[in-house]
Amino acid sequence: MTSSNPWRRRIAAVTGLVLAATTLAGAPAAAEGPEQIVNGTFDNGHAPWWATGNLTLDSSSGQLCADVPGGTVNPWDAIIGQDNIPLVAGETYEFRFFGTATPARVGKALIQLPVDPYTQYLSATPELSVSGNDYTYTFTSPVDLPNAQVAFQIGGSATAWRICLDNISLQGGAEPEEYVPDTGPRVRVNQVGYLLHGPKNATLVTDATTPLPWQLKNATGAVVARGKTTPRGVDASSGQNVQTISLSYGRKGTGYTLVADGETSRPFDIGTDFYEQLRLDALKFYYTQRSGVAIDDALRPGYGRPAGHVGVAPNLGDTDVPCQPGVCDYRLDVAGGWYDAGDHGKYVVNGGISVHQLMSEYERSAHTGQVRTLRDGTLALPESGNRVPDILDEARFEQEFLLKMQVPAGQPYAGMAHHKIHDAAWTGLPLLPHLDPQPRELHRVSTAATLNLAATAAQAARVFKPYDKGFAARNLAAARTAFAAAKTNPALYADPADGVGGGAYNDDDVSDEFYWAAAELYITTGEREYRDAILASPLHTADIWRDRGFDWGHTAQLGRLELATLPNKLPDRSRVRASVVAGADRYLATARAHPYGIPYAPAENTYDWGSNNLVLNNAVVLAAAYDLTGRDRYRDGVLETMDYVFGRNALNQSYVTGYGEVASHNQHSRWYARQLNPDLPNPPRGTLSGGPNSSIQDPVAQQKLQGCAPQFCYIDDIESWSTNELTINWNAPLAWIAAFVADQDQG
Ligand code: 9MR
């Protein structure tokens, strides 16, 4: 926040004079030059600043504040820091910040080597006061270092206190180096592998505009196939001139490479079984997202942790949560469910589509005779062995939470669902769930959340019926009540400004949620009320196949897909089925025109937040068309989509942790935060990154990716929350598609 307080400025001037005398001996006068600190003003959050686990960073006031606990011994027992600050040997830097302490304290401000022996290039001991001062120091760097650390060491106090920092700046040195991603060899392939009888396409980045020879080599380096590339011109999504390669080769093996234009691709396999593992990994992801239960290290080695948000200090817990002031005067037990993403929030609209896609994966498997692949015991869950398919055990864990979010009978808005529950203020990284000290609050009810509950509860009612009649009945009752409550309150929209401490997930068009909920209720009950709601909805016949795909805020597609693929007695069912095939034809045309083979080419050439999930959801439409028609071209479109996800893309990397030679592994998360703390794990194998996002809303992306072509608007950095987060709703289509592809066996 920029200070407009003249009093504060005056103090600053005086303090500056005093401190000039304390700067390092022999340092030249204050340096001019480029700014090396990312986001020192805290006008919009505090990424990429991090803190030790005993601090919760709070930038909601426009300054960076933290309550420092008492009872620590060393200065380094509590730290606020920023990494990756480039220093140039011989350059002089000016380091400034504004700071307060309540009560007053002496802190330590360091610019240092980030690893042992933590050599300090600047060490200052600012005397922080309650009213606050500006501090200025200069120093000359003795080293060239790409990754120095700014660290405020504030531990060592017997009693608790509060620190606030603002306008942190390190000026001088060289212009920060332009970020250029390491994209490796220019031949882009699916780094995991191609199915034996599926399509095998690759993309070559080249200046050449005429066909070039290519060679396929096996693991021993012998050429086993050859051909000519197809020039494709300049690809808008990457800005690259590209050519495509289509292999027709049918021998299983590992360690193949593709050679063209003097470049050798990363290695890949040709085979049958690599999606079987992804089918499981993409679903296993959900167990370690669970809130309210301890994660058993025996089930997920390296990922065990205490239960989060169960009311054990410093957590205030989700077992007895009040509403935001003025919203309600009751409290609810909303413990359980999955954490949404890298934050500790739980949101009904996003939980809704996620649990729906898991149940839909189950229903598809049941209808195609593949349900054994998701049977009891497949996902190493605490519930394994209970004779319920593990995928349903996992779905139930979330569905139980969604039911808890419904307003109880007798209260205002009874039957509606609260939109979300999350921290009162944003927290910093890393922060394990059980260490989150923020108060938790229920936010207002919304029509969208209520209809998500109606849809998923109606689906749960039919899916769980063979396994637990009581749970099925409870869901059906909740679904009916929710749908009726939404009809009574059809336009209670979440506030777009309600984004402090958690995402807003706002949506001011809920006609699509009405359509989806009516579809689920009709498929489950066959009742006239719901059929009439479907037939009366303009969305029932509208062209809903947007180029941008569907997601938590666009759910008409879920309703249409369900009505097309699940048994029901809708009078115009054949038209509904044909409309899904027509949508798939459109996505197929997009994929065929795309030199990276994806069914995603949004208008204006801008990629949305979480583009990978939109790409995959368009592939879900292709997969549904395959199930409806049996035509290979739709299945091939799905397989080509997975080529992109696994490395046939402009960045030459897989977006799924643990899959492919180079893969995302630093997704934004408060507990899989190995990039910030080596004692913590990376995200588990099978975690999808959100992927390229043209709007680059976070400071790391803004610093490094300005002007990016869509496919380049991505960085595998834990603080790039707008390009590299993990979420429950993005892993859901990954899991769905992984199961679909695994069912194709050899392609
Ligand atoms: O996935 C959400 C995306 O569609 C929205 O554009 C964005 C801004 O509202 O929010 C995304 O969701 C984030 C949520 O708000 C908080 N948890 C993490 C989610 C993924 O980044």
From TrEMBL:
<keyword id="KW-0326">Glycosidase</keyword>
<dbReference type="Pfam" id="PF02018">
    <property type="entry name" value="CBM_4_9"/>
</dbReference>
<protein>
    <recommendedName>
        <fullName>Endoglucanase</fullName>
        <ecNumber>3.2.1.4</ecNumber>
    </recommendedName>
</protein>
<feature type="domain" description="CBM-cenC">
    <location>
        <begin position="35"/>
        <end position="155"/>
    </location>
</feature>
<dbReference type="InterPro" id="IPR001701">
    <property type="entry name" value="Glyco_hydro_9"/>
</dbReference>
<dbReference type="InterPro" id="IPR014756">
    <property type="entry name" value="Ig_E-set"/>
</dbReference>
<dbReference type="InterPro" id="IPR004197">
    <property type="entry name" value="Cellulase_Ig-like"/>
</dbReference>
<dbReference type="InterPro" id="IPR018221">
    <property type="entry name" value="Glyco_hydro_9_His_AS"/>
</dbReference>
<feature type="domain" description="Glycoside hydrolase family 9">
    <location>
        <begin position="275"/>
        <end position="737"/>
    </location>
</feature>
<keyword id="KW-0732">Signal</keyword>
<feature type="signal peptide">
    <location>
        <begin position="1"/>
        <end position="27"/>
    </location>
</feature>
<keyword id="KW-0119">Carbohydrate metabolism</keyword>
<feature type="domain" description="Cellulase Ig-like">
    <location>
        <begin position="182"/>
        <end position="265"/>
    </location>
</feature>
<keyword id="KW-0136">Cellulose degradation</keyword>
<dbReference type="InterPro" id="IPR003305">
    <property type="entry name" value="CenC_carb-bd"/>
</dbReference>
<feature type="region of interest" description="Disordered">
    <location>
        <begin position="676"/>
        <end position="697"/>
    </location>
</feature>
<keyword id="KW-0378">Hydrolase</keyword>
<dbReference type="Pfam" id="PF02927">
    <property type="entry name" value="CelD_N"/>
</dbReference>
<comment type="similarity">
    <text>Belongs to the glycosyl hydrolase 9 (cellulase E) family.</text>
</comment>
<dbReference type="InterPro" id="IPR033126">
    <property type="entry name" value="Glyco_hydro_9_Asp/Glu_AS"/>
</dbReference>
<dbReference type="InterPro" id="IPR008979">
    <property type="entry name" value="Galactose-bd-like_sf"/>
</dbReference>
<keyword id="KW-0624">Polysaccharide degradation</keyword>
<feature type="active site">
    <location>
        <position position="668"/>
    </location>
</feature>
<dbReference type="InterPro" id="IPR013783">
    <property type="entry name" value="Ig-like_fold"/>
</dbReference>
<dbReference type="Pfam" id="PF00759">
    <property type="entry name" value="Glyco_hydro_9"/>
</dbReference>
<dbReference type="InterPro" id="IPR012341">
    <property type="entry name" value="6hp_glycosidase-like_sf"/>
</dbReference>
<feature type="active site">
    <location>
        <position position="716"/>
    </location>
</feature>
<dbReference type="InterPro" id="IPR008928">
    <property type="entry name" value="6-hairpin_glycosidase_sf"/>
</dbReference>
<feature type="active site">
    <location>
        <position position="725"/>
    </location>
</feature>
